Amino acid sequence: MKFQILLLFFFFTSLNSLASDFKYIAVNDTTATAAKDTTVSDTMMMYWTEKNTFGVNLSEVAFVNWNSGGNNSVSALFFSSFERNFEKDLTMWKNSASLRYGLNAQEGREVRKTEDEIRLKSSFGFRKDSTSNWYYSGKFSFNTQFSNGYKYPDTEVPISKFMAPGYTFLGAGTEYSDPVEDLTVYLSPITFKSTFVLDQRLADEGMFGVEPAVTDELGNILKEGENLRTEFGFLVTSGFSKEVFDNIDLDNQLSLYSDYLNNFGNVDVDWQLNVNMKVNDFVKANVGSHIRYDDDVKFKEDTNGDGKLETSGPRLQLKQMLGVGVVYEF
Question: How far is CA 194 from the centre of its chain?
């Protein structure tokens, strides 16, 4: 955990330093012409914009002599996001990071994780003229989690860990960006997707689509499972943000990916829809949903009642969120 936090701190510190150094830079090129004795000044400005957000959503229930019964509980979701964007003439470079971690403590039960996400994104684009909203673009994204995930109530055998899985997308294509409507659509016919499973036990089981271990009739491992799976496919992403009512914002993020080499047309879906409501500068409420589907993500469950988890097929993943908390932006 310390390594993950140190790595992220180094990334954000480096990017913030770069943005600070180049936020307002003017380079003057002054040349004197002997015939006219005049000075021509050509000033080039490079602009960085930045945004930082820190927040926590809290919920708590406490009972004292409550005849209807109930368990005391408290939940907290800690989140932060960072943006560093650069735009000059026909060039655009956008960088963002999102960190989320949630916990729930209930009387008579161990503390459980409710949210866990590390997500980094970077995109670079170039357009042919200042009137066009179409960019030649390249994108990179990475996401994983901080800590072990479990199939509760079992907390002995993790079903996921840091970098198990970890995902990266790297590709090139074209992007439509509408600054007025705050709409982006990205089309990439050449995108490489890498799935990392750096926990050997999970890799041996073939979790998250990697090649499983080869075993003999007694279950002894003859060849360890692969820790990396690579895919080459088509990626479509879309982002849309709009203030639908006063102090109520809608944010929609959609990602669709299909592998050319393995069941092309079988689409991986990652769709987030959030409604953010502003009470004041520091208090905000959020209602959101997150839908995922990945044919390579297999689920584990005890299907025969023997106390052991068997691996089953892929399923639609759905998460719904409702929170009120304190947010600080600068």
Answer: 15
